[in-house]
Amino acid sequence: xxxxxxxxxxxxxxxxxxxxxxxxxxxxxxxxxxxxxxxxxxxxxxxxxxxxxxxxxxxxxxxxxxxxxxxxxxxxxxxxxxxxxxxxxxxxxxxxxxxxxxxxxxxxxxxxxxxxxxxxxxxxxxxxxxxxxxxxxxxxxxxxxxxxxxxxxxxxx
Length: 157
What we know:
This protein has no helices and 13 strands. About 0% of the residues lie in helices and about 40% in strands. β12 (about 135-140) and β13 form a beta hairpin. A 7-stranded mixed sheet has the order 5-4-3-7-11-9-10, with no helix packed on it. A 4-stranded mixed sheet has the order 6-13-12-8, with no helix packed on it. A two-stranded antiparallel ribbon has the order 1-2. The protein has strands at about 5-10, 15-20, 25-35, 40, 55, 60, 65-70, 80-85, 95-100, 105, 115-120, 135-140, 145-150.
């Protein structure tokens, strides 16, 4: 394997990766865990003193790309994007995962990772029909570690 000399940070996460393509994420969320009780999103851009949030609701726009930096999970909490509030109907279209070593997985193979960066290129034709139309969830602790993702219509702006 050839060592790549072009190492750069993925957006503002401060994590360095080799051979990471730039998928143009509008926002990168740093994901970590509060034990097995919640996912923590620590860089939402608001909150007193940069406070972290347990299982926060995320609002995103269709026709955009969102990145989830999973390197704070320490390998313990498989991260999934799910269609709906419960069950195992995992969203697989337009997902790209880039591992720390630069390995790229797409679609259903991009789900369930606990390190690297997961990119969700949100299609133009999806919006949330309710607060729990899409959720992020830990497959090991699905009743505790989950939060809503509200997809707003870019065309309505």
